[in-house]
């Protein structure tokens, strides 16, 4: 799962939201020094990722990608699932999406003191450029995937992956709609 989904699966607190995004920035962080609610959020992030990576629908979705891009299918699905969460927001909550995003941004801004430097830099860019709302557009997902492809340090064919996604859009959204309720049930159990 990507930024929006991790924030959606967090408790609505500064510490939980920071912890739920920290999984992507935890390298070199002294986990034992984290405040308990941040560590719980980090644990939720990691459990969410592990559950997602093992889910039969997600595993099936990865096989839909061409052989040259299949290696990166998990990364693509993580980002794409944020798009599908936005597209299907009202299926999962009655909360206003713009209000949720604004609250999440405010909590991330207030929680900067809990973040490693790289995370502060990324979350500030996220807020400034409103990444979470931008995930509504499939073309923006393509741009995000191309930026990720550009950071890979070896030759790859990840760039342009959005073209495959567009062809499979309905099928991939069906995968998300089958998978995401299971993830909600799993994380709901973890957070009680």
Q: State the distance separating the first and last CA atoms.
A: 21 Å
Helix/strand-derived category reads mainly alpha
Q: What kind of sheet is the major sheet?
A: none
State the order of secondary-structure elements, H for helix, E for strand. Answer: HHHHHHHHHHHH
- Sheet-strand content, in percent, reads under 5%
Helix content: over 70%
| Number of individual domains | 1
- Average pLDDT number: 90
Q: Which term fits the overall shape?
A: globular
The overall strand count is: 0
Q: What does this entry look like structurally?
A:
This protein starts with a helix and ends with a helix. Helix 4 runs antiparallel to helix 12 and helix 6 packs antiparallel against helix 11. The protein has 192 residues and is mainly alpha-helical. It has twelve helices and no strands. The mean pLDDT is 90. Helix content is 71%, strand content 0%. It has one domain.
List the helices and strands and how they pair.
Elements: H1 3-8, H2 14-22, H3 36-54, H4 56-62, H5 67-70, H6 73-87, H7 89-92, H8 97-110, H9 117-128, H10 131-134, H11 138-151, H12 162-190
Helix pairs in contact: 2-3, 2-8, 3-12, 4-12, 6-11
Task: Please summarize what this structure is.
By secondary structure, this protein is mostly helical.
Name a few traits of the molecule.
192 residues
């Amino acid at each position: 799962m990507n930024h929006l989904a991790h924030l959606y699966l967090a408790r609505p607190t500064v510490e939980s939201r920071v912890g739920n995004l920290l999984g992507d920035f935890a390298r070199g962080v002294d986990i034992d020094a984290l405040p308990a609610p941040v560590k719980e959020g980090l644990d939720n992030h990691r459990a969410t990722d592990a559950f997602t990576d093992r889910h039969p629908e997600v595993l099936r979705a990865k096989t839909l990608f061409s052989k040259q891009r299949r290696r990166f299918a998990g990364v693509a699905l993580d980002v794409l699932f944020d798009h599908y969460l936005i597209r299907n927001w009202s299926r999962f909550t009655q909360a206003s999406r713009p209000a949720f995003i604004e609250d999440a941004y405010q909590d991330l801004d207030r929680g900067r003191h809990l973040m490693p430097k790289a995370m502060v830099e990324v979350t500030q860019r996220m807020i400034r450029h409103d990444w979470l709302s931008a995930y509504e557009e499939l073309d923006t997902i393509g741009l995000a995937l191309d930026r990720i492809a550009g950071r890979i340090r070896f030759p790859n064919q990840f760039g342009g992956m959005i073209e495959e996604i567009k062809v499979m859009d309905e099928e991939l959204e069906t995968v998300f709609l089958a998978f995401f309720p299971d993830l909600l049930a799993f994380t709901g159990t973890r957070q009680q």
